Hints:
The chain is an alpha/beta fold. It is 39% helix and 14% strand.
Amino acid sequence: MNISNSKALFSRAQESIPGGVNSPVRAFKSVGGTPIFMQKAKGAYLYDVDGNQYIDYIASWGPMILGHAYEPVIKAIQEYAVYSTSYGAPTELEIKMAELIKSMVPNVDLIRMVSSGTEACMSAIRVARGYTGRNKIIKFEGCYHGHADSFLVKAGSGVATFNIQAVPGVTAGVSADTLTCAYNNLAGVEELVDTHRGEIAAIIIEPVAGNMGCILPAPGFIEGLRKLCDQEGILLIFDEVMTGFRLAPGGAQEVLKVDADLVTYGKVIGAGMPVGAFGGRKEIMQVVSPLGSVYQAGTLSGNPIAMIAGYTLLTELKNNPGIYKELEEKTLYLKNGLDTALSAWGQPYVINQLGSMISIHFSEHPVTDFTTAAAANNARFATYFHAMLNRGIYLPPSAFESWFLNNALTKEDLDKTIQATEASLTNL
Ligand code: HOZ
């Protein structure tokens, strides 16, 4: 495959952008090779600057659930952009967006729009601290809630991909307020709560983890967290940046049938524009400024172009809930095909999947937490990644990321992906 233009752009990028990329996981650092520079995308396909076409399993790390350049979204952006790209004053669009989200997520009374998932999670823990008057939070090893200081402790995604143990610049004081536990270890959380009784403001979790590959909550785990939080006056925060509007109109809360106290969004909510949000019950969210004194703000929060993009996509998802069934059927078709190919190959592997989130770990044991994800043969994943890329299949460049399916994928695309896997395995 000719990627000479990507190579030239990557060398040029490194002269003016740290590591040549504006977000570390794009750099291919753990899988090796040159990041592919994109020119355009349509539906399920990415096209690079050398004219190569790829079947996309990243979907911009989640947002493009109906495929790239989805026409109703593009049309709405074009229509609104002529009025202004930002006012710094409220618009009716923001109310429509909040009302739409409330209609899809019944336990959200108040919702504040921000510009990224990081901002949403960072603000949610500030709200939890302001509301409870407590300082500490519990997060899970391998979960990633964005790059705010409090979350960069045993984090997943790029932090795990690059094996960063302690992030310089994050003070010991901030880290000391972040307690961590293994995902799916309810007894471990109970022990932490017992040791720090009355000090914990919130437990924040990806209800289906996507930042150490895809990892499912064990039966009873999330329900156990809910019960513990109720007993101890701790707020349960679902980071639905990946799962929100992806697993169901009501996200993981709807699928798992567990209500969080606060929920955070990103990715799908903005249809590819920089959007995040945090929300919850009125009694909690009313601490947020200017209603309360937990300060949180943003020049571009509720930006009109971002709002119309997100509003248009969420409206499609709300009005056509069959999309979720289609996405799940496609993902199961892929899972079964990959399973057949990998079992014929005869080496150990694990496929985890829920809804349209899926990933492969080259592991001989079930992958249920960060320790088991990290113990997998991730060098083998890197070889698999490149073998697939060379065959026109664009997977996340790390075993510590979930794949995201988009509904523009056809059966033919899925068959090509399964065939590419069969062909790739011979070299692993
Ligand atoms: N949360 C996304 C992947 N885990 C973000 C991608 C990025 O960090 O660029």
